[in-house]
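Thread title: Can someone regenerate the structure for this chain?

I was given the following input by a collaborator and told the matching structure tokens would be attached. They weren't. Posting the sequence so someone can regenerate them.
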Amino acid sequence: MKLELASFYVKDIQFCEKTEFRDGILKVNKQELIELLLCDNRLKDVELDIARPGEETRIIPVKDVIEPRIKASGNSVFPGFLEKPLTVGEGRTHVMKGMAIVTCGRIVGFQEGIIDMTGPGADYTPFSKLLNLVIVANPAEGVSSYEHEETIRIAGLKAADYIAKSVQDLLPDDIKTYETKPIFESISKYPNLPKVAYVYPLQSQGLLHDTYVYGLDAKKIVPTFIYPTEIMDGAIVSGNCVSACDKNTTYVHQNNPVIEELYERHGKDINFLGVIITNENVTLADKQRSSDYAVKLAEYMTLDGAIVTEEGFGNPDADLIMLCRKLEEKGIKTVLITDEYAGRDGASQSLADADPRADAVVTAGNANELIVLPPMKKIIGLVDAAGIIAGGSQKSLKKDGSIEIELQA
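Best answer:
Regenerated them for you:
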């Protein structure tokens, strides 16, 4: 599959009478977008706001982050949600770089997140560097937590699609092409390079910890091959409320740094064959089945090496280590990328499971480490959510507006 990502670099966002993109400025008809989102009668109210890098602004609690993208043909890039579940990952997709849609509002699950646009907290979130169009949306009375999550998720996708339409017919600033050929063709093209794939576990523990593949809940899938360009093109959408530092937002799926780096190395020192997606269910039988199946696919691809990431912590640590052990037993050299929950003093066991074969691990830091977030002049959302977000407590929010909280938030 060959995918062209045509980029449009956003320099600012402004509310105006007409939604359009011109000279790097995104102008948004605020009322028009609000009315579009309120077509879902499960929403009681919607407000829009803008958060810019460097401003003394805190967004809390954050549900999802999404990059506006649209096919040059006009089709949505979220198959299974805004479009029929047709295969994506090829052709041309228009991308609005430097900005994101952020969904916010009354908390869905206790594991939501914080985005600070400046200060020490900004160093721990990539979204502090983006121009953020924030949707603050609250559910109507009687809406269940599952409907609430779905409503906010769909609102974010609708907004991203609406905004991306502003660049559908424009000439991009630049175009970057990504291509993955069928497996056997790829192997024959670079016979002397080590064959590498990305094993990509998706959060699927249920109870608001869900991820969607072409609109299907990932807990219902068996591991499968997927072209990396499908992931870039919106095939995977976040629906989970896991701790912020452990969550692959939709934006992260669209811009997965592991995939981008593997493409950069492809044909140079590795042969990047593609991605195996798997899930992280809660029962031992599910974990055994999914890890067995994922490793079977890796063996079928005759891999020399694999990179495995983790989404979530605790229970999914078992999936991570199972995959590592079984891949290594097949002679496939495996590297793990994960954060740690080592206690606030760093003295606890970092993962809930371990194995001697897990001897190449990249740490993304200790999520239990405490940080003090200073007061901000502007709050978008509900600052009292700091008391119930994972990593916080009833003592987190101080009288002066500062927040003492773990990095996982």
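The chain is about 20% helix and 35% strand.
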